[in-house]
Amino acid sequence: MKVEIDSKKENILHKRIEVQFTAEHNGEATPKRNDLRAGIADKLGVAKDRVILDHTNTEFGMGVSHGYAKVYETPELAKSSEKNYILARQGLAVKKPKKVKLVKAKAAPKIK
């Protein structure tokens, strides 16, 4: 797999760099999130735990994926800024269990 950085934009307010990337994976399956994060971190020379992969789109039959990632200044800043489900996808947080709603049972109709 070969990762290329298409564009970088510095977001000073959130203390991160926003990256558009292209990953070429001819003859291989769609790359895993962990592999993409490692490739982006390697290209930018940062630690993998600072990279948060937002989304990827794979072109059908082409062996090419395009995506968007955020590279934070510190891993703690990434954990405080991103939502829990995004962090859980990256393996940086534990997935919270869903809340179960209890439904009150209706009383049976009276038969006359």
Plain-language structure description:
With 112 residues, the chain is of the alpha+beta class. The chain has a single domain, classed as RRM (RNA recognition motif) domain (Alpha-Beta Plaits). The chain contains three helices and four strands. The radius of gyration is 20 Å and the shape is elongated.
Index terms:
112 residues, alpha+beta, Alpha-Beta Plaits, four-stranded antiparallel sheet, 3 helices, 4 strands, 23% helix, 33% strand, elongated
Quick synopsis:
By secondary structure, the protein is an alpha+beta fold. The chain is built from 3 helices and 4 strands. It has helices spanning 33-44, 75-81, 84-90, and strands at 2-11, 16-24, 51-59, 64-72.
Chain-wise SSE layout:
Elements: E1 2-11, E2 16-24, H1 33-44, E3 51-59, E4 64-72, H2 75-81, H3 84-90
The CATH architecture name reads 2-Layer Sandwich
Q: What is the overall number of helices?
A: 3
Widest sheet: strand ordering:
1-2-4-3
In the CATH hierarchy, the third-tier topology is known as Alpha-Beta Plaits
| Domain count | 1
Kindly provide the name of the CATH class. Alpha Beta
Overall mean confidence score, pLDDT: 89
Helix content: 10-25%
Radius of gyration: 20 Å
Q: Tell me the fraction of residues in β-strands, as a range.
A: 25-35%
> What's the order of the H and E elements?
EEHEEHH
Distance between the amino and carboxyl termini: 73 Å
Overall 3D geometry? elongated
Uncertain segments: none
Tell me about the largest β-sheet: 4 strands, antiparallel
Which superfamily, in CATH terms, is the homologous superfamily?
RRM (RNA recognition motif) domain
Structural class: alpha+beta
What is the number of E strands?
4
